[in-house]
Amino acid sequence: MAASRMPALWLLLGAALTFGVAVSPAEGSRSRRHYDFFIRKADYTRLCHRKSILTVNGQFPGPTIYARRGDLVTVHVHNQGDKNVTVHWHGVDQPRNPWSDGPEFITQCPIQPGASFTYRIILSWEEGTLWWHAHSDFDRATVHGAIVIRPRRGTSYPFKKPHKEIPIILGEWWKGDVQQLLAHALRTGGEFQPSDANTINGQPGDMFPCSRGGTFTLPVEHGKTYMLRLINAALANEFFFGVAGHRLTVVGTDASYVKPFTTDHVFLAPGQTVTALLRAHRASPRSHLRSTRYYYMAARPLSTNPLVVFDNATATAVLEYTDATPQAGLATPDFPTLPATNDSAAADAYAARLRSLASDAHPARVPRRVDERMLVTIAVNEIACAPDEHCQGPNGNRLAASFNNVSFEAPRHADILGAYYHHRHRSRSAAGGVRVEDFPNNPPLLFNFTADDLPPELELTARGTRVKVLEYGAVVEVVFQGTAILGAENHPIHLHGFSFYVLGTGPGNFDGDRDPAGYNLVDPPYQNTVAVPKGGWSAIRFRAKNPGVWFMHCHFERHMVWGMDTVFIVKDGNGAEEKMMPPPPGMPRC
């Protein structure tokens, strides 16, 4: 059943807005930090091939933002590139401040070449590892970096402070121009070309040609503990990550602390972060025995849909004991044991171990009463090919994706947040458009979502700009239900403006009478990106206390482009601190 085409949302027809910066009383006491980001092209060589890529400050990966819990960080973005761009601060709630959230045509018009915009990143409860990335086209392939949020001054980690912290960013590299690959896929309606290599901190590792000299190396000393701030910045791949000869103690995910547990490997879906401690216990300098000086760190992809071609290469980096006895010759580092590229059970088992710390300093406040329940089906679909087109998707159609069989279509001449704000502060006629607030709470048709033999008519969907409006303070429970339409697979679903409790996950079709009895309401993990398992479901819950316009989408980039997205609009509350801030000066115009 295909969703009907809907008109554009709050069409903004050139009307002017009044801008000003609202400062809440709490902001006056925040520590402030400032960064300048210059978006510009830079030449990089990978896989024996040199090409020009979009970067921040000429760096790939980009610069790390360092802050403390509760800080206010301003980032002045200067677009010196040749295309429009926006930047998103992934996992930062941005309380009352959707204007600095970043997704193009959702909360802002893009920053045009030669223009600048200042983002205000308001940190609140977040503490741990997050990241920033471009949120325009496929720019985040090379425009991304870490956000390190340390405890407030006068407080400490809920574990012994490590000797050093190191961002470890997992990503991908294409030999070709990513924007041209995107344009080709959108023009033809076919699949996107997979990457030519996976990377660790921008490098594929010494198993690839022309790569030995650039391989990322982490120097360590025996007896010291290191904090690895792991980030999956990939567009298309989920990853297992491990270090040969060492176990990792997981202490956080998505800037929220978890009950520590030790594991041989971690799993990260695109968008997710993991904070893990590594104790350098090998290669003692006092030992008279010859010991290994080098150990491989490795990232191996997971692919859960055999119908999708993917980059199955393993990226490597090297952990080096700088105080170990030098070894004669070039010793080959030990390699970690990682799950196979199709071992979805290992990914599910890892996720099941995540539990919030739930301490006095870092409590788990799981809402018990639910005001709004949603069942959201996740699917890769087809859209009928136009008569004058030659499409290269399944059955001669265009590939698409959807939530509840609505393939989201963002406006291209306005942003939803600006249009919504304008609509609230002007008459309906002055807004010059139509409000479409009917994103469905349930799929249009109930069927055996995870069956292997689904009828072909279920594959079709249609575009629509449909959003879900929530009352301020409402408790929302969303069950994401995977489907087998065009093949079942994992889906990393990210919500802007909120983190949420992942109450439960399971195989097959969600049973509303049986499955909630197994929810974890005591210490569920608190995340901003949930990896919905192949052929299964995940249930999340959050309290809508952040007024504004907030994007929700799959973090597989091609799925997002195809329409596996929607928007939550949270209304203002009654109190002064429960209302969305007005737009800042200098918002980019479309």
Automatic annotation (TrEMBL):
<keyword id="KW-0479">Metal-binding</keyword>
<feature type="domain" description="Plastocyanin-like">
    <location>
        <begin position="165"/>
        <end position="323"/>
    </location>
</feature>
<dbReference type="InterPro" id="IPR034285">
    <property type="entry name" value="CuRO_2_LCC"/>
</dbReference>
<dbReference type="GO" id="GO:0046872">
    <property type="term" value="F:metal ion binding"/>
</dbReference>
<keyword id="KW-0052">Apoplast</keyword>
<keyword id="KW-0677">Repeat</keyword>
<dbReference type="InterPro" id="IPR045087">
    <property type="entry name" value="Cu-oxidase_fam"/>
</dbReference>
<dbReference type="Pfam" id="PF00394">
    <property type="entry name" value="Cu-oxidase"/>
</dbReference>
<keyword id="KW-0560">Oxidoreductase</keyword>
<keyword id="KW-0439">Lignin degradation</keyword>
<feature type="domain" description="Plastocyanin-like">
    <location>
        <begin position="40"/>
        <end position="153"/>
    </location>
</feature>
<feature type="domain" description="Plastocyanin-like">
    <location>
        <begin position="439"/>
        <end position="573"/>
    </location>
</feature>
<dbReference type="InterPro" id="IPR008972">
    <property type="entry name" value="Cupredoxin"/>
</dbReference>
<dbReference type="InterPro" id="IPR033138">
    <property type="entry name" value="Cu_oxidase_CS"/>
</dbReference>
<dbReference type="InterPro" id="IPR034288">
    <property type="entry name" value="CuRO_1_LCC"/>
</dbReference>
<keyword id="KW-0964">Secreted</keyword>
<dbReference type="InterPro" id="IPR017761">
    <property type="entry name" value="Laccase"/>
</dbReference>
<dbReference type="GO" id="GO:0046274">
    <property type="term" value="P:lignin catabolic process"/>
</dbReference>
<comment type="similarity">
    <text>Belongs to the multicopper oxidase family.</text>
</comment>
<dbReference type="InterPro" id="IPR001117">
    <property type="entry name" value="Cu-oxidase_2nd"/>
</dbReference>
<dbReference type="InterPro" id="IPR011706">
    <property type="entry name" value="Cu-oxidase_C"/>
</dbReference>
<dbReference type="GO" id="GO:0052716">
    <property type="term" value="F:hydroquinone:oxygen oxidoreductase activity"/>
</dbReference>
<comment type="function">
    <text>Lignin degradation and detoxification of lignin-derived products.</text>
</comment>
<dbReference type="InterPro" id="IPR011707">
    <property type="entry name" value="Cu-oxidase-like_N"/>
</dbReference>
<dbReference type="Pfam" id="PF07731">
    <property type="entry name" value="Cu-oxidase_2"/>
</dbReference>
<dbReference type="Pfam" id="PF07732">
    <property type="entry name" value="Cu-oxidase_3"/>
</dbReference>
<protein>
    <recommendedName>
        <fullName>Laccase</fullName>
        <ecNumber>1.10.3.2</ecNumber>
    </recommendedName>
</protein>
<feature type="signal peptide">
    <location>
        <begin position="1"/>
        <end position="22"/>
    </location>
</feature>
<dbReference type="GO" id="GO:0048046">
    <property type="term" value="C:apoplast"/>
</dbReference>
<keyword id="KW-0186">Copper</keyword>
<keyword id="KW-0732">Signal</keyword>
<dbReference type="InterPro" id="IPR034289">
    <property type="entry name" value="CuRO_3_LCC"/>
</dbReference>
<dbReference type="InterPro" id="IPR002355">
    <property type="entry name" value="Cu_oxidase_Cu_BS"/>
</dbReference>
